Amino acid sequence: MLRVECLKSIYSELESCLVVTIMGAAAAELQSLGHRPNFFYLQHAMGLASSTGLGLALCLPEQRVIVIDGDGSLLMNLGSLSTMARYRPKKLVHVVFDNESLLSVGGFPTATSAGADLEGIARASGIPQVATVHSVENFKATVTNALHGRELTTIIAKVEAKGPAAYVTDLSLVENRFQFRRHIQSLKDR
Amino acid sequence: MPVSLTNSKLIYDALKECDIRLLSALPETWLVHLIRMTDEDPEMILLRLAKEEEGVGISAGAHFAGVKSAMLMQNHGFLASINGIVSFAHLYKIPLLMLISYRGSFGERDPWQTQGGNVTEPLLRALGIPYSFLDKAESAKTRIRQAQTLAESSLQPVALLLMRELMWEE
């Protein structure tokens, strides 16, 4: 299963969500499908995408929020799972693409390649809904269900360690940030 | 416990007057009253963190959502947040109001706090983070207002160091 195929399968669902991604392949691949003002790419600060999604979801409880995380990033901030589970916003969906690798820096294997079980860690941290998926069909169905449900969900998507040819895009980080915030303000004004 | 209830209340009320509606925190002795007041206030969102750096992401999310927030932490929590401060708050121009208890400085009896006390101000300076002190009841409210104003106008982290003189009653 390829991450970009997974992203393609849910791309139309993302239109009505606030989307926060991690750096690297996830950010570049989502942008390659077409940037939207409701997409925020956290191009550094590994581990904090889930915290950002949590802050958004708690401040905007009626807004659907989806975090596109990765095994390397989540392993840097496992405590975030316990914090999310503690406050469990109902409309937050946490997707973790697990390619068992730090792909962007040369493909060094992460602990999930040696047996660390992110689904088990998420479940034991108290995340109320947890699933692992291995096919695009299953990914699409599980994420779509979670987005229309009302319970904090973490979905581990096992993907191949393959990424895009390039990681740098023409969207300035600061431009992305101001556009994202302005988009949220426009939702409030509607 | 000789943590000043009166001055904790003063700080808490000043934060609320700045329209702050979300506080992230990790327990530390000097912060106990502030955390309890936040927890008991239905108008405030309290996030008890596993590690202080999470608070940078949470405050960024709150800022995107149009909600004003502040971070309550010990100076060792500030040390633990530095990558988030640099590669999120500085990189993306995110306002952060950080209230940092200044442990390990003059008057400190706990040996384990002292090394962090030595490096707090040099690190704030190295990171280019504007900072000031909350050391007197008379000026605390104004300083909090000023720090919050600067964080919002400059879109960057600003620190207030909570001092023993204000927080502790011997």
pLDDT < 50 runs, ≥5 residues of chain A: none
* Mean pLDDT metric of chain A: 96
Order of adjacent strands in the largest pleated sheet of chain A: 2-1-3-4-8-7
CA radius of gyration of chain A is 15 Å
The total tally of domains of chain B equals 1
Largest sheet of chain B: 6 strands, parallel
Question: The CATH topology of chain A is what?
Answer: Rossmann fold
Secondary structural class of chain B: alpha/beta
CATH class category name of chain A: Alpha Beta
Instruction: Tell the overall outline of chain B.
Output: globular
How many domains make up the coordinates of chain A?
Answer: 1
Strand pairing plus helix content of chain A: what structural class?
alpha/beta
Distance between the termini of chain A: 39 Å
Helicity of chain B, as a percent range: 40-55%
Task: Pick out the low-confidence regions of chain B.
Answer: none
Biggest interface goes to: A-B, 36 and 31 residues
- How many strand elements of chain A? 8
CATH superfamily of chain B: Thiamin diphosphate (ThDP)-binding fold, Pyr/PP domains
Describe the fold and architecture:
Chain A has helices spanning 3-10, 25-33, 49-59, 71-76, 79-87, 118-125, 136-148, 173-189; strands at 18-21, 39-41, 65-70, 92-98, 101-102, 108-109, 129-133, 153-158. With 190 residues, chain A is α/β, with parallel strands linked by helices. The longest helix of chain A is centred in the C-terminal third of the chain and has 17 residues, at 173-189. Chain A starts with a helix and ends with a helix. Chain B has a single domain (5-167), classed as 3-Layer(aba) Sandwich (Rossmann fold), CATH 3.40.50. Chain B is 49% helix and 19% strand. Chain B has 8 helices and 6 strands. Chain B has helices at residues 5-17, 32-40, 54-64, 75-80, 82-90, 114-126, 137-154, 164-167; strands at residues 20-25, 45-48, 68-74, 96-101, 131-134, 157-162. In chain B, helix 7 (137-154) links the parallel strand 5 (131-134) and strand 6 (157-162). The radius of gyration of chain B is 14 Å and the shape is globular. The A-B interface holds A 18, 20, 40, 42-45, 47-60, 77, 79-80, 82-83, 86-87, 173-174, 177, 180-181, 184-185, 188 and B 22, 45, 47-51, 53-67, 69, 83-84, 87-88, 91-94.
